[in-house]
Amino acid sequence: MAERRTGGSEAGYSRRAMLAAAGGLTVATSGCVRQVRSIVNRDDIEQLSLTITTRPADGDRESIQLAREIAAVFDAVGADVSIEMRSNEEVNRAILFNYDFDVYVGQHPGGTDPDFLYEALHSLYADESGWQNPFGFTNLHVDELLEEQRRVDPADRDEAVADALEAIALEQPFVPICVPEEHRLVRTDRFDGWGDRHPATGPGYLGLDPSDGVDGIRAAHTDARPSENANPIMAEYRDLEAFVDLLYDPLAIEIDGELTAWAAESWDWNDGTLAVTLRDDLRFHDDDALDASDVAFTYRFLADTTLGEGVSPSPSPRYRGRTSAVDADAIEFDDDEGRVELPVDANRPVAERALTVPILPEHVWKPRSAAADLPGVRVAQGTTEAVVTDNWPPIGSGPFRFSSRSEREHVTLERFDDHFTRRSGVELPEPTVETVRFQIDPRSTSAIELVNTNEADITSDALETYVLDGVEETDDTRLLESPSWTFYHLGFNARKAPFSNPRFRRVVARLLDKAWLVEEVFHGHARPIATPVPEEWTPGSLEWNGEDPETPFLGTDGTGALDVEAARSAFEEAGFRYAADGTLRVRQ
Amino acid sequence: MLAEVLARVVAVVGVALPLAIAIFVGLERLKRTHTEWRARLRTSAPVIVILSIVLVCNRIMRRAGPSISRDIGIHVNFYEIEGEFVLLFQRIASSEMNTYFTVAYVYGYTFLLIFPVIAYFALSNTRPFRRLLTAYSLNYAIGVVLYVLIVAYGPRNYMPELVSETMLYDNSPQFQYLTQEVNDRRNVFPSLHTSLSMTVACFAYATRDEYPSWLPVAVGLALSIVVSTMYLGIHWGIDVAAGIALALVSVAASDRLVDRWSLRDLRDAVASVRTTVDRQLDR
């Protein structure tokens, strides 16, 4: 795509140069030079040409199908559109690090608290790597509203969030499409307690009740990346997964929507400071003590992985939003007392989200603050060892520790016997088995078969929706449905015209028949959305009411039939033009 | 799971090979092979070494290839060039066809590749044998270079729902364990299933005087495999066309390359270089 565009403009230049040369001979002396120059020095507008970046069916079957439907509507309105498929980590690298895309289709990790949008959309982050504003979206009004919901009294936060969501819906920095249902197949004859806690999180694998003689959880995992890389802050390799939670402890963990003290014994909130008391005698998997200084280090490190040694701060590509309100330089700690004081510039609900990041051992990660270098290769500024290391073996303090792995085959964890959840008097879900083995199995269909043939206990990634209608439960297997907060969306690269134009983005949003896409692509196992937050945070004005309340479909709802004439008029009303041959012309 | 699938392939091919040897090769040739095998091996040793090296490199490259092609490969979406051509095969879809093409793709292909190696080794004239191994080497060597340069995904990855009825991994997910051992999912251009099958078919034609009844079997099997790659949603028509071209190039090149250099030539060349060097040093 990019090549084609460059080719076009080069051709344009040479044509222009020839004209100028030929014209120059005849008119140079006649005083018309100015006019010639102003004739040839005008860039032509060209047909809108764009590439949709997405994953192939092996990586995400719904994404490629959505991309094709979206390509079809772009084509119908006169754009020149193509689809580029890339593997899971390549898609993430192109979007989150290199901004090498026009638009993309995929799943957003989302969040249970709408504050994830602060990270996703604040213009402060337009230039950072990771899930912090990959769209390059910049809007001061939205910034202000995102900040406001962090500052207001918690009692007024609902309203502040609603204001922010409405402003975002108006701007459409990305088009939220739907929230897919999350289903997993589990064996009930080997474990009781599946689904007591969310199976996309670590606690989902703790506190299970194994049958006699069962001493390991066998998970069939469709995404091979956990077997390739164990770096908790590496955004290319991490999606929704329990893997990091099992290896690393946070101070507090979300169980059933409730923030629960985890590595922290307790914390107090007073006047902008979270005063955390750690549990006694916490250990990392290499038997080093987990001290208050490791906690303080973690927050400093997530804010700047160069630890102040870089030309400019180089924040972690993950957990940025959750820790952004923490003033990392002003953290105070006392190793002997096991106390950490985190000064936080936010209201309590937002501040407490900072407690959910994994605690990193200082002795392992501090040396990784050095700049990554490769002899003879130019490395992007701010690339520290920390953000590129594969991190094998991962050293955390979590309920399980790393045991063995084979790339694209399995990762096996073993119980960390010293974990605090195993102490008497601690009423938290604890590891009840010796091992957790994530068996990599690339397809939902075969993962299901592994559970059916008693070779696996759970399909640990959410099943693709196309297999759901065919899954049969037996006496020993059960289909487990869990709440979902990830969502499918169409992301724009707002650094490029015309995707930088909110009017353009709004018309594009209106080309999508979300209800129909849910039926066609997700076989009904999803709900269409106008705003990307969980239902309990959705304001009435943005509730799905049979159609999108903000950007209703330009066609007959639920049929996928786009009214092409109406769509073209909408583009024209938004300031774009059509050529006689029906192609949409834009400046790019 | 992999072990299970492998065992099945070994079992099926283990039955098919002796049968085919009995039918096509015959006792007479086997007896002569028994007395001549050392000499034949000696003549063919260089080609066997080359093929082994190519196969080892191929294996390494297929593991390392994806990360190299991420940097230098060209991403192409073949759908945008050829459209829905491969969906043509969905029209003949039925569960019997699924079984037939799956068997052809997995078992037929393995058999088709191994049998000629034995059949040509059973010939006193080692040239067909050496040419076949040379052609295999060329297929794999050129194929792996193209895999690194061209990054593309097959129809099943682009329009999964349109090929789902016949798609190999939806219907027989166990085979993915086998194919992922030998292949990355981005390796679609060219279709090596096509190129190697067509290579065998070309050789079957060239050796029709020796093995007249093998020719129709080889051609029939090769064509089934070629169609199966598209029917099962694994390859585009373009991959298959490139596979056929690769087969023709490899077969033609094997004719030119084999017997061009003999070991004695090589020894003579080394000797003459050595004498030249010695002479230079003496001076």
Describe the fold and architecture.
Helices cover 29% and strands 20% of the residues of chain A. Chain A is α+β, with helices and mostly antiparallel strands. In chain A, the strands form eight sheets. Chain A has a six-stranded mixed sheet. In chain A, strands 16-17-18-9-19 form a five-stranded mixed sheet, covered by helices on one side. Chain A has a four-stranded antiparallel sheet with strand order 12-13-15-14. In chain A, a hairpin with a 5-residue loop joins strand 25 (577-578) and strand 26. In chain A, helix 1 (2-27) runs antiparallel to helix 2 (33-40) and helix 6 (140-151) runs antiparallel to helix 7. The relative contact order of chain A is 0.16. Mean pLDDT of chain A is 90; it is low at 1-13. Chain B is an all-alpha fold. In chain B, 76% of the residues lie in helices and 1% in strands. The model of chain B has no long low-confidence stretch (mean pLDDT 87).
Low-confidence stretches of chain A: 1-13
Mean pLDDT of chain A equals 90
Low-pLDDT parts of chain B are none
Number of helices of chain A: 17
Task: Produce a short descriptive summary.
Chain A is α+β, with helices and mostly antiparallel strands and 588 residues long. Chain A is 29% helix and 20% strand. The N and C termini of chain B lie far apart (68 Å).
Topology at a glance:
The complex is a heterodimer of chains A (588) and B (283).
Chain A: H1 2-27, H2 33-40, E1 46-47, E2 49-54, H3 57-76, E3 80-85, H4 88-97, E4 103-108, H5 116-121, H6 140-151, H7 157-171, E5 174-180, E6 182-187, E7 191-192, E8 209-210, E9 216-221, H8 243-247, E10 252-255, E11 258-261, E12 264-270, E13 273-278, H9 292-303, H10 320-323, E14 332-334, E15 339-343, H11 348-353, H12 362-365, H13 385-388, E16 400-406, E17 410-415, E18 435-440, H14 444-452, E19 458-459, E20 477-482, E21 487-492, H15 502-510, H16 514-522, E22 526-528, E23 555-556, E24 561-562, H17 564-573, E25 577-578, E26 584-586
Parallel strand pairs in A: 2-3, 2-4, 9-18, 9-19
Antiparallel strand pairs in A: 1-26, 4-21, 5-21, 5-22, 6-20, 7-8, 10-11, 12-13, 13-15, 14-15, 16-17, 17-18, 23-24, 25-26
Helix pairs in contact in A: 1-2, 6-7
Chain B: H1 2-72, E1 74-75, H2 79-82, H3 95-121, H4 127-149, E2 150-151, H5 155-158, H6 168-171, H7 175-182, H8 192-206, H9 214-231, H10 237-257, H11 263-282
Parallel strand pairs in B: 1-2
Helix pairs in contact in B: 1-3, 1-4, 1-7, 3-4, 3-8, 3-9, 4-8, 4-10, 8-9, 8-10
